[in-house]
Amino acid sequence: MWQNLIVAVIVAAALLHFSTRYLPAAWRRQIVYFLARRGVNQDQAAKFFKTTPDCGSGCGSCGSCGTDDKAAPVAGSAGDTSQPLKRVIPLHVQR
């Protein structure tokens, strides 16, 4: 009896660790949104699942609506270049 209970607690802890660390960000946001609808504090759940709060519930801080405070700088501002920043990943081919 006790062995089964201990194993169940260990499996639940492993599942919780997996869901907070290795699930895609979109899934974690949906979990936070689901928990927030059920009465869990959304800010604490978002911090626990390492995601941003308010995503999936409408226009919040996720940046999908364009009202995010951390928006990209306006064109023509200091340090602005006319061409987008290109990042190149160098590949080293071994033959």
Automatic annotation (TrEMBL):
Record lineage: Bacteria, Pseudomonadati, Pseudomonadota, Betaproteobacteria, Burkholderiales
Protein's name according to its UniProt entry: DUF6587 family protein
Annotated organism of origin: Duganella zoogloeoides
InterPro entries xref list: DUF6587 (IPR046494)
